[in-house]
Write a structure and sequence with these properties.
Blueprint: E1 3-7, H1 18-27, E2 32-35, H2 43-54, E3 61-72, E4 75-82, H3 89-117, H4 123-127, H5 138-147, H6 154-161, H7 177-186, E5 190-193, H8 202-210, E6 216-221, H9 226-239, E7 242-246, H10 269-283
Parallel strand pairs: 1-2, 2-3, 5-6, 6-7
Antiparallel strand pairs: 3-4, 4-5
Helix pairs in contact: 1-2, 5-6
Length: about 280
């Protein structure tokens, strides 16, 4: 099955609505997509309802997914989850904690920007950039700074204000990757470490997270070179983990006018292995 298992929408830091993602996936010939917004699962029912209305449900399968942002030893570790029961109380509680942390961090940064830099932005300027109930984050803060005239571009906003060494930046208090993995696994989901190339301690951390229920490694990702894909695929095989992949789509590639949804080559067997893993977890 032609799949893209890592996609963001307006419910986090993607620019497309769930409906637009469905249309685009159908247009590029994808058969399976997973919506993996940061720290919320609100885009899934919207996409499912819309797909039903198009009468093309036989053409596309939508998987319930999530990407949980966590911090560990100053590394930002993202944990993907697939097929979890989103009504599970621990899972719901984790989302609540994550959302509260996002709001707290954002309000603290807004205060520091006004106090130290004289840049005045309102919480609503940030909140209105995402769909109702969605996850606000650094891209939205950077955009609000630029819109307020604090910088000339979003890139400049990042380099001046949205990083650990900036006097106005406040780190978010997140759940640990260990908790995220365990909660997703206990809710019947398949926990996977996202784009591990970003983490120097990936191998050591992956082995540690396996004790909490980690079941896969995202080897196929647009940031991963062929050598990197090979490295993490071999690691997964050695450790008895599955391999997943996706485009990590946020926005069309403005440089060459391309929609890169599904552009990242994910072998067709990846979907089959994910389904097998979900069945294994359900039987455990």
């Amino acid at each position: 099955m032609k799949s893209d298992l890592h996609i963001h929408t307006l419910y986090s830091d993607g620019v497309f609505s769930p409906e637009k993602i469905v249309d685009t996936a159908l247009d590029v010939g994808l058969q399976v997509i997973a919506l993996t917004d940061h720290d919320n699962v609100l885009s899934y029912p919207v996409a499912k309802d819309y797909l039903k209305k198009t009468n093309r449900e036989n053409k596309l399968e939508i998987i319930q997914g999530i990407e949980v942002n966590t911090l560990y030893k100053n590394y930002e570790v993202h944990i993907l989850g697939y097929f979890m029961d989103v009504t599970d109380s621990d899972f719901q509680n984790m989302l609540k904690i994550q959302q509260q942390a996002r709001v707290k961090q954002t309000k603290e940064i807004i205060n520091l920007l006004a106090k130290k830099e004289g840049i005045k932005i309102k919480f609503d300027d940030i909140k209105k950039q995402v769909a109702e109930g969605g996850s606000i984050g650094r891209p939205h803060i950077a955009k609000a700074i630029t819109n307020a005239g604090g910088t000339t571009s979003v890139i400049e906003a990042y380099s001046k204000y949205i990083h650990d060494d900036s006097p106005v930046y406040v780190q978010r208090k997140t759940v640990s990757p260990h908790d995220a993995v365990e909660i997703i696994y206990d809710a019947g989901g398949v926990p996977v470490i996202a784009h591990p190339h970003d983490i120097d301690i990936a191998e050591e951390l992956i082995k540690e997270l396996m004790q909490y229920g980690l079941r896969g490694i995202e080897a196929y990702h647009r940031k991963h070179s062929p050598a990197c894909v090979e490295y993490f695929s071999s690691m997964a095989e050695e450790l008895g983990l599955i391999v997943t992949g996706g485009s990590d789509f946020h926005a069309p590639n403005i440089m060459n006018g391309q929609i890169i949804l599904g552009k990242n080559f994910v072998p067709e067997w990846v979907y089959d292995k994910l389904i097998e893993e979900k069945k294994r977890i359900d039987m455990a």
